[in-house]
Amino acid sequence: MEIYLPQTRIATSRGLWLDRLPVDDLDQAIQNGAEMTAFVGWNSAQRREIRLSYAELGQRVDQIALGLLDCGVGKGDVVAFQLPNWWEFTALFYACCRIGAVANPLMPIFRQRELRFMLGFAEAKVAVVPALWRGFDHVAMLREIRSDLPHLKHVFAVGGRDGQSFEQALLDRPAISHAERETLAKLRPGPNEVVELIYTSGTSGEPKAVMHTANTVLAPARCFIDDIGLTGRDIVFMGSPYAHQTGFLYGMLMPIMLGTTTVALDAWSAADAVPLIEREGATFSMGSTPFLSDVVNLPDAVRTRVSRTLRTWVCAGAPIPRMLVQRAKAEMNLDVLSCWGMTENAGLTITRKRDPQVKAFETDGRALPGNEVRVVDDQRRPVPPEAVGHLQARGITHFVGYLKKPQLNAIDADGWFDTGDLARMDADGYIRIVGRTKDVIIRGGENIPVAEVENLIYRHPAVAECAVVAMPDDRLSERACVFVRPKADARLDLGELTRFLAAQGMAKPYWPERLELLTEMPRTPSGKIQKFKLREIAAKFTA
């Protein structure tokens, strides 16, 4: 894999990167406490709970590593796995790391169209799927598209049968011998080799395959540990998918770096999360705003059970409503931290517990140590505080390029990466994402702050979801069109919406001038709204 990692970046990262492998953390955790619980999770397909000690997890990692070697997997080969938050996901990643293979996590909701592209583009040699997950036959799906994937040599299913059984192919072997351990040691990759290949969510078109090395996946986890003050006494609960960077880095990899327990839920449900959090004493979690809202809105008695141990919740992906932050602290003594990041650079900015609470709902934080962000104009010159511009970032968490598409890397000679986000930065260095570059609507020469308009529309009691995009206009060039999915049984028209925006004090030029009601928003497989599809629809409209 051709990566973008100039010597200047290696030099500037010296002393900040850990220059080790994720599997080194696993080995260290086994050495420090082999019998300590590494993983607690619920497999809803098999209707059973799984608990593994570090010794048990390590043994399975080695068995899987040897099994992959028997399948012909070599250094740099891609092993794809489309699994929920199961221990098999964790073990596959560390097994790949053990032999220098590249792990390619894929969301369980992907279907034929996405997998045909992703497995083919990455030239995956092995794919691992659930035999059955939430009523869907993944084995049959892979069988259907297998002829389109000439590089795919093996397909295994967790809970599968016969020759496609993950358990039989990769686990049914004796404990690792001394000679086999020496074989694995010789295959050890370097810290600047690719260990993870993960696709962007494709909100603006075809997803890109993001490459991360051992150094760039360990760096964001270490940043969180140091900045938030996490220790081996913390217990990490994760309900976000491991196949997203949130779950991958902070739910799977970070607990092993800490040498502590990860508590995993394979399908999000606040009601299912509560007994796990309570029983295992989880202290930290990270998830999107809707997850936090579900927890805060639990019945009082149930919420009290969670608040006995849960102390920190990091939110990323969308602004956090003021009331949610305030209720979490007042009713649960839960610190909510606002975070911003991308698949390309993980969590890059975050608020701090010592910050005034307003920072959590009015900003997306400031850069973590070893990273920088700046806001620039169209000529790439820094803009004054509070001015909106293009957000750029650089630092130790950044990826090392897009697979087979180096022309899209968007990294300049000084290492600044164009995030594609529009943002403003306050005098304290805290940023607020206000939209995507492609979200810009220029109405009669004036920029409409799309994200701010959307955030205000979300406050309307009839709105479940919304997205604002440009539509053409002969006189003003562009006007704003809003697509809304109303709440059940709610009614909304453009007049009512504009009256609401007027009452909220929003300037009239920012108001949408057309309203389209949808029963469902177009989405990526990971659930994000595909604005490019809405733009295609709006291109045919007039105000």
Summarize this structure briefly.
With 543 residues, the chain is of the alpha/beta class.
Main features:
alpha/beta; Rossmann fold; four-stranded parallel beta sheet; GMP Synthetase, Chain A, domain 3
Report on the architecture of this protein:
- With 543 residues, the chain is α/β, with parallel strands linked by helices.
- The chain folds into three domains: 22-189, 3-Layer(aba) Sandwich (Rossmann fold), CATH 3.40.50.980; 214-398 and 406-437, Rossmann fold (3-Layer(aba) Sandwich), CATH 3.40.50; 440-538, ANL, C-terminal domain (GMP Synthetase, Chain A, domain 3).
- It is built from 18 helices and 26 strands.
- The strands form seven sheets. It has a nine-stranded mixed sheet with strand order 2-1-12-11-13-14-15-16-17, sandwiched between helices. A four-stranded parallel sheet has the order 4-3-5-8, with helices on both faces.
- Helix 2 (22-33) runs parallel beside helix 10, helix 9 (214-229) packs across helix 10 (245-258) and helix 11 (270-280) packs parallel to helix 13.
- The chain starts with 6 loop residues before the first helix and ends in a 5-residue tail after the last helix.
- The mean pLDDT is 93.
